[in-house]
Amino acid sequence: MLGSITPLGERGRGSRWWVTVTAYVLGSALAGVAVGSGLGSLGSSFASRTPVTARLVVVALAVIAGLLVDVGSFGLRLPTVRRQVDEGWRAGYRGWVWGFGYGVQLGAGVVTVVTTSTVYVTWLAAALSGSAVAGALIGTTFGFARAIPVLSVAGVRRPDQLLHVDGVLIRWAAPARRATYGVGAVVACLALLGAARW
Amino acid sequence: MSPGMGSATVDALVVVGVALAVAAGLRSTWSP
Any idea what the Cα angle at residue A110 is, between residues A95 and A113, rounded to 5°? Predict the structure, then answer.
């Protein structure tokens, strides 16, 4: 995805990169807010009747179960839609239009291919947070975290620089995957510790 | 439950949720 929104590519399409990127980040953040606040609202009734200890334990167990699925335990595979963003949009629409559209889809987290269970558990945490505001905060964080890495390609103005970015992404894919596992394990421990405190 | 318990409850879940959101968002950089 990062290689799709570069100054090099936008120049070739006659668009301004910063406009496309601004729309992309905005779309992703707004989608995160919408999904997070919606889930927070939907879960508020359940959350109000469920002790925080139980909700923290549920999130911790979901993180652990998700990690087991992510590493392929028991032959399990992460359920996901197979859909991707429509590449044709980049040729058919203005930069800010497809940028916003891509942002909305990716910021929602689950309408394109999901590569990590932490996406699902994030939305579970939003639902269990107990309010639209708390859910929106979680969702906004996801939306920004999903979109902000695009700024790392701000300096790509030549094809060889794009190839370099692709190479970096490939090299960092495995470490990023392991880092996600680590964060998940830490979060699960923190959630269980938090539950124990109450 | 003490008066402060409600906000602390939300805080704990929000902290966990935000941490997950950061990890999930950044990790998703490697998806289409």
Answer: 75
